[in-house]
Design goal:
This protein is of the alpha/beta class. It is built from 17 helices and 16 strands.
Length: about 400
Amino acid sequence: MKLNGIDYDTYFKNYPNEKGYYGNYGGRYISDDLKNAMKEITDAYFTICKSSKFISELRKIRKEFQGRPTPISYLERLSSSLGNVQIYAKREDLNHTGAHKLNHCMGEALLAKYMGKKKVIAETGAGQHGVALATAAAYFGLECDIYMGSVDIKKQAPNVARMKILGANVVEVTHGLQTLKEAVDSAFEAYSRDYKECIYCIGSVVGPHPFPMMVRDFQSVIGIESREQFLEMTGELPDAVVACVGGGSNAMGMFSGFLNDPVDIYGIEPLGRGTTLGDHAASLQYGTEGVMHGFNSIMLKDENGEPAPVYSVASGLDYPSSGPEHAFLRDSGRVKYDVIGDDDTIDAFFELSRKEGIIPAIESSHAVAYAMKLAKKMGKGSILVNLSGRGDKDMDYIIEKYGIR
């Protein structure tokens, strides 16, 4: 399949290039010391990812520890309530720890082990990446520091407790908006002081090269499984694939399985309370090109050109930029990026819970909400939604803010 000069049959051989760029986006905008650290990680990854021992161990972990492959569920009652379009869900909520994040955390921690590192550090917003990395650290016997904003610590108390039970040191970030962007800032600062003994396990397809590529590769298991499972279930490919996008790891994992197929692909950003800057986190929709956290992408900026304050009801999506590969796929026209607001998201949260017995993460509810709207627009066909996580972590917040509907 070719589109706008890009051959998707050879896409993964060409993107990123040797410098970590997807077109204009990506790269490494970091200090010389950290460039050396990134080169060490890149060299190790390109060596290890071709090693049969590494691949075999990761496959064993996915099967015997994570519980992969995760299934696809046909959402029959939800589909019937919307018309003739059939909606399916890739059940990453059934992955061990309750979300897609463990897919790359086990890979990154295994890489750390092969590199002889003693500690893993990371940021987290919704807490799912923190829980996943704490789980991976416990599995491999590594130390673990998780940086998390004060606002998110309050919103995601169950996941904070899980991280601590798993042995992680949760570092509260109290400056700025006290959410995901500040957590990333703090984790990068800590990593720059201790990069020889630890590895920074970035929680999405963001950051300096090689992390956007590595996280995509580890998450591609979602798309690979989904394509095979959907064909087996229905005998054909879905007409549309939908996933939520903050940094964008679950989406890149899902999209990677379908880029070379005649399938419409939708990445859904959080519109939050509206289009005013500070009321949403829809960087691909409203942002401009800029550098943040070591990579060039599309970001939301304030009047001084700095990362703007952002908001989303979903702690895992309130980030003022998006992965460089998403920016590239947006520009190329291969993936359509759109938005969904808080109200529709919460409606979808309750609708899926009541009609299918599945309580989704608020992040995933953005994708479900968009799929519901898309189903009414399409009139016929099929939609595959990446249900990137379960909603246990969100229960206290939902009840406190919205009550039981």
